[in-house]
Amino acid sequence: MVSKLNILQNYYHIPLEDQFTFTYDSHKYYLTNKPFPFYFQKYISLLQINPFKIIDNIYQQKQSQGFILYQLLNIPTDIQKIISISLIPLEAKTINIIKKEWIQYYESILIYTSLNSLEYQIIYYTLFTLCQLSIELLNHYFSSSTTIPCSLQHQTIQSIEDIYKIENIILDLTVHDLLNLYLNDFITLQQLEHIFNENNLTSKELQLLLCYAIFPKTCLFYYHKDNLIQKRKRLMKYNKKLSSLILLLQKYIQIPLFNWIK
Q1: pLDDT by residue (tens digit) across 158-187?
Q2: Nearest Cα to 180, choosing from 134, 136, 212, 224?
Q3: Of 181, 159, 183, nearest in space to 240 by CA
Q4: β-strands 52-55, 27-32 pairing
Q5: How far apart (Å, rounded) are the C-alpha atoms in residues 78 and 51?
Q6: Helix, coil or strand: residue 94
Q7: What is the pTM (predicted TM-score) of this model?
Q8: Could you tell me which of 8, 13, 16 has the C-alpha nearest to residue 33?
């Protein structure tokens, strides 16, 4: 079977590692012999853009043994449009399914973690407690049969580049991108409040946003990649952003008292 490394070397004269995504000469590329995933096709269709151009190989051909090399273009990012698309429901899940998914997710990350220092233990139990609290809040606000809308979201948004990553588009809760844009400083708390009002977010949506915000997915996602210092910094930033968000949401919905969140 031909490798991506051979394709890059023989058809593009690019001596890079065998990988799906790479940066070369300050440009981002994707090499694949498969069509773009359905969710990604749907997403760029809704955005009404094409963030890629096909790179011809050294023989001026679009395909190289079935592979196509795509270059990511520098397209201005419209955060407001990204938010609008993220709020368009496509499917729905019940609260019962969401709870099972959250429990399975945090258990897969935390359950087998070795606690080799006091600080590791503090971080671990803080995250574990937040996970448990998010499930309890789901129980507090919703019945198990309540349906929750899902739409096209980004698995993570750490940089503008993440917006158009092919493998980054997923189907998740409609509040997912909104929360990540806030937690990663793409939008301010004031802008978030403006979005609440402009889009007439319901109490149900804001309650779900609170539950999802307390579920520390942004910390869990990088848990095994981060060293101890990174874990601490990420958790401290998360707690600070979460506390501000809770104060904002108190203006719109009833929230149980969280004296322990500092």
Answers
A1: 888 788 888 899 999 999 999 999 999 999
A2: 212
A3: 183
A4: unpaired
A5: 13
A6: strand
A7: 0.85
A8: 8
